Amino acid sequence: MKLPELDVRTIDRVVEMAWEDRTPFAAIEIQFGLKEKEVIALMRKEMKHSSFKMWRKRVTGRKTKHLAKRHFVNGSFLSIELK
Description:
Elements: H1 8-19, H2 25-32, H3 36-46, H4 49-59
Helix pairs in contact: 1-3
């Protein structure tokens, strides 16, 4: 997958948001234009293999990372209301 060119600061911010359990992938997409698959590819590229595996195991199917599965809208990095 071809990722867009991102500066170091943006990469750090995306990684931080992806690690945050209550930040949905939709918030990352709104703020940085990266879809969930692109965030996963970025995490794979930026992290050690063992850290990536641990992160993927933790976020796979996690309700808080996917807006459609959440029972609330607001999270740490999401302050706008989404449909």
